[in-house]
Amino acid sequence: MDLGIAGRTALVCASSKGLGKGCAKALAEAGCRVIINGRTMASLEATADELRHSGADIIAIAADVGTPEGRQALLAAAGPVDILVNNNGGPPFRNFREVDRDAMIAGVDANMITPIELIKAVIDGMCERGFGRIVNITSSSVKAPIAGLDLSSGARAGLTAFLAGVARTVAMHNVTINQIMPGAFDTDRLKSNFERAAQSSGAPVDTVTASRRKAIPAQRFGTADEFGALCAFLCSTQAAYITGQSILIDGGAVVTTL
Q1: Whose CA, among 31, 204, 211, 235, lies 20 to 30 Å from 123?
Q2: Could you read off the pLDDT of 194-227 as tens digits, one per residue?
Q3: pTM above the 0.90 mark?
């Protein structure tokens, strides 16, 4: 299906690997000019080279999106942004009693304030041009909180609530704002979580991994390509009537009717 976004400029944060890379790949395949981002230039360039094989125009910017300087570098390289995919690593798994004030502020800054700052920087231009797609990668824990990920859940839920009203104020300009809530995906972050859980419990990593997989109705973990395909559709011309929504993609793990 032609998504109708060929030639559009897409800025995809934290996209050298994992779900961000999946989004960048899908948007590149749809014909977008894609600005990808990561902190390590080596892995970033490897991803850029991979994506360029499809003939896409890829610009790689090594920067920390969580800093004003990093955000400015991305925006300067992108120019007018048509599509913004907000993504950033979440706070580590931790008992809430161990989360001090500084950690809470850092978590909210990374997973709520940073994406809002980027949205503020691009949204007026989108409205003026009559096209804009903003997709925020949050987490299934926004809908079904997980003990130990309280700071991540809280900051991402705050982002979702903050943008719920904003989305309705720009919809008439063909600008949409949506969230994708991923469950368990086959990424480096998921593997590191399993390794940490194995160390804590004393169980083998394979046992921890198998137990988590079995708990998912689909009986498997998601792939970055599946996630990217959903992101690209939300950025398409066909998705213009979808806004202010949080879409769960988790293989059926969260039991809900809504």
Answers
A1: 31
A2: 888 888 889 899 998 999 999 999 999 999 999 9
A3: yes
Q: What is the pLDDT of residues 111-144, one digit of tens each?
A: 999 999 999 999 999 999 999 999 999 999 999 9
Task: Compute the radius of gyration of the chain from its Cα atoms.
Answer: 18
Q: Is 28 helix (H, G, I), strand (E, B) or coil?
A: helix
Q: What torsion do the CA atoms of 27, 33, 35, 36 make, to the nearest 10 degrees? A: 40
Report whether 54 contacts 6 (CB < 8 A): no
Structure tokens given for 248: 């769960």
Tokens of 157: 């839920």
- Residue 19, token pair as written in the block: 């779900």
Determine the average pLDDT of the residues in 149-165.
95
Structural tokens at position 117: 């700052």
Whether the per-residue pLDDT at 58 is higher than 90: the answer is: yes
Q: What order of strands is seen across the sheet that includes strand 246-249?
A: 58-62, 33-38, 9-12, 83-86, 132-137, 175-182, 246-249
Q: What's the rounded Cα separation, in Å, for the pair 142 and 107? A: 14
